[in-house]
Amino acid sequence: MSQQDNSLHFVAIDMGSNSFHLVIAREQDGTIQTLHKEKRQVQLADGIAANGLLDCQAIERGLTCLTEFHQRFSGLEQTRVRLVATHALRVAKNARQFIKAASKIIPYPIEIVSGHEEARLIYSGICNSQSLQARNLVIDIGGGSTEVVIGKQTKANALASLKCGCVSYNKRFFSSGVLDKASFKAAQAAADKQFSLLPNAYFKGDWPLVLGSSGSVKAIYEAINDQLDPPVDITLESLIKLKCDLLEVGHIDKINLPDLDPKRIPLLAAGLCILISFFKRLAVDSMQVAQGALREGILYELAHIGQQKSIKQRTVTSLARLYHADPVQAGNVSSSVVHLFEQVKTSWPIAHYLWLLESAAELHEIGIHINSRSHQKHGGYIIENSDLPGFSQQQQNLLTLLVLNHRKRVNLYRIEQLEPEEKRLVTRLLVIFRLAIVLNLGRINTETVQVQIEAHDNHVSLRLPSTLDEEARLLRRDLATEQSKIAKLGIKLQF
């Protein structure tokens, strides 16, 4: 990349279970212009042992790839960077170890997204890369999971993530390299069991457009069209013919497809079994290869940052409405949060997390709909176990901790499990949030109490306005109660 280019650049990194993808783009005359694309087969999923740990070789492959990716854009003047990790780091028990090492190489946060969020980003990438129909079915066969989406033009109506992938299935059913009927039968049966778990909406058939997004689907498409000109769409008949060809060959090492990426050939049989099961279970007639994928979804939302925020906001507002949270009280708490936050955002480096506190303010009472006693526990449970479009797993966990601990005793065990930096962040956000809650215990729709706050390391000082009169006595009592609870977080509160 040229170091003389001072325009705003967008960098998207898709850390898949099989391959890592890098896309660098820039804003040009109001449009997004792709400047560089790169793919590396890292195969994180192949490095997950039976005990659920990523082995040292897989970690090293991933870190080496990120080092080289960083070199591609580190010289650019203005960049917005987003790294998204999927199934392998979702399930690896030592994912934190990998992320901690990666943060020393590439100084940007890694978002581990849920399966549903991965599916949403995939559909976002596709719908911004090509024209879609009124009803679309999309499949993305990754290294460790398979995402299936039903969409209506630009909107995803149903999202699903299944535990079947080309790397994990290759390791499970074709590790010896032998291509025989027993291996294909076992792999297809396992995939069929996964597809059978999909909701009823997926089994209604009649799909005007079916798209396959991923290296596996593209490899299968290329294998089917190896001797054909012009190329044809993928059909069940062509998939079964390819399966027969592989059975006749008998071993992965004997597959002769010179135009196919050699690294894709060992995964061909596993991906084929998943795709055959998909066609049969969902009554698919034919499939085209999608023009976009997860990385384009990341890039598009990164470039249109306002839309990404609106996705999060729609998610939060929808959840608040679903559980009948009081919008007036949420607004009062949010106003207090902003008032306190603006005074401490410099002394405490938390400037990028106001949106998270505002989300917590809007959702902090959703648990009351279930039971008013200990409603913070119900609210935390709802957030932790809901699909939250627009949120990474880390962001969802932070939001859970804020709502879970906004009143009464702090769940210190959950907070102690965090890495030191994340623990410090949660502690500081919680102090602001809990103080905002205390300032609004009266549930009166009045202007924000103009409390002055100073924060330095583990010390917080409050100064109350003299105009409070009788209210000050009650507020001081509430703050005294809160003082002992905040002390358990390691923060000394004075007022």
What does this molecule look like?
The chain is an alpha/beta fold and 495 residues long. It has three domains: 8-112, Nucleotidyltransferase, domain 5 (2-Layer Sandwich); 116-298, Exopolyphosphatase. Domain 2 (Nucleotidyltransferase, domain 5), CATH 3.30.420.150; 304-494, Orthogonal Bundle (Hypothetical protein af1432), CATH 1.10.3210. 46% of the residues lie in helices and 17% in strands. Helix 13 (354-363) packs across helix 15. The longest helix is centred in the last third of the chain and has 19 residues, at 420-438. The protein is elongated.
- Can you count the beta strands? 14
Cα Rg: 26 Å
Task: List segments where confidence is low: pLDDT < 50 over at least 5 consecutive residues.
Answer: none
Number of helices: 18
Largest sheet: 6 strands, mixed
Oligomer: single chain
Round the mean pLDDT to the nearest integer and report it. Answer: 90
Q: Architecture of the largest domain, CATH level 2?
A: Orthogonal Bundle
Strand order of the largest sheet: 8-7-6-9-11-10
Distance, first to last CA: 54 Å
Output the CATH class name of the largest domain. Answer: Mainly Alpha
Brief overview, please?
The chain is an alpha/beta fold.
Fold topology:
Layout: E1 8-15, E2 19-28, E3 31-41, H1 56-73, E4 78-85, H2 87-91, H3 95-103, E5 110-112, H4 115-127, E6 136-141, E7 146-152, E8 155-162, H5 166-173, H6 181-195, E9 209-212, H7 215-224, E10 234-235, H8 236-249, H9 268-281, E11 286-289, H10 294-303, H11 305-322, H12 327-344, H13 354-363, H14 375-384, H15 393-404, H16 412-416, H17 420-438, E12 452-456, E13 459-463, H18 470-487, E14 492-494
Parallel strand pairs: 1-4, 4-5, 6-9, 9-11, 13-14
Antiparallel strand pairs: 1-2, 2-3, 6-7, 7-8, 10-11, 12-13
